[in-house]
Design a protein that fits this description.
Largest sheet: none
CATH topology of the largest domain: Helicase, Ruva Protein, domain 3
CATH superfamily of the largest domain: Corynebacterium glutamicum thioredoxin-dependent arsenate reductase, N-terminal domain
Mean pLDDT: 77
Strand content: under 5%
Number of helices: 6
Shape: extended
Low-confidence stretches: none
CATH architecture of the largest domain: Orthogonal Bundle
Distance between the termini: 60 Å
Order of helices and strands: HHHHHH
């Protein structure tokens, strides 16, 4: 029996994390050192474990979190590209960011934004019909 809350048949988290680090090290070979991969993996697990209510699949979730962090690191170093454009607006008073983003017309972004708006509006109508009736 596993010492983690009586979960029989599960490997200890350290064992799973070491295996995850091996997989990630292969995936990011030449971009990030093996030591960095292992550190990011264990840090990701520790960060998630601090607030997790359920720990059964935490090592697996930590591996995905570590992969996301390693992708971001490799992207910041220019080693891999980003699949879609990313735009960050910074404004101290929050004046004008949303208007600038609304007017920005990059290929596909306006369509996605409009689809999201329609989806949210549909969900609001289904979940809270009274709320959508008061729109101006």
């Amino acid at each position: 029996m596993n010492a983690q809350r009586g979960q029989e048949g599960l490997l200890p988290p350290d064992s799973v994390l070491h295996r995850a680090a091996e997989r990630l090290a292969q995936q990011f070979a030449g971009m990030v050192s093996e030591e960095t991969v292992e550190r990011v993996g264990f840090e990701s697990y520790a960060a998630l474990a601090r607030t997790a209510n359920v720990s059964t699949h935490l090592p697996t979730v930590a591996e995905k979190f570590a992969r996301d962090r390693l992708v971001a690191l490799a992207q910041s170093r220019g080693l891999i590209g980003k699949p879609v454009p990313e735009i960050l607006y910074v404004c101290v008073q929050n004046s004008g960011r949303s208007q600038m983003a609304a007017d920005l017309d990059l290929d596909g972004i306006r369509t996605v934004r409009d689809e999201i708006r329609q989806h949210v509006q549909q969900l609001l109508t289904e979940l809270t019909p009274d709320l959508t009736a008061h729109r101006s």
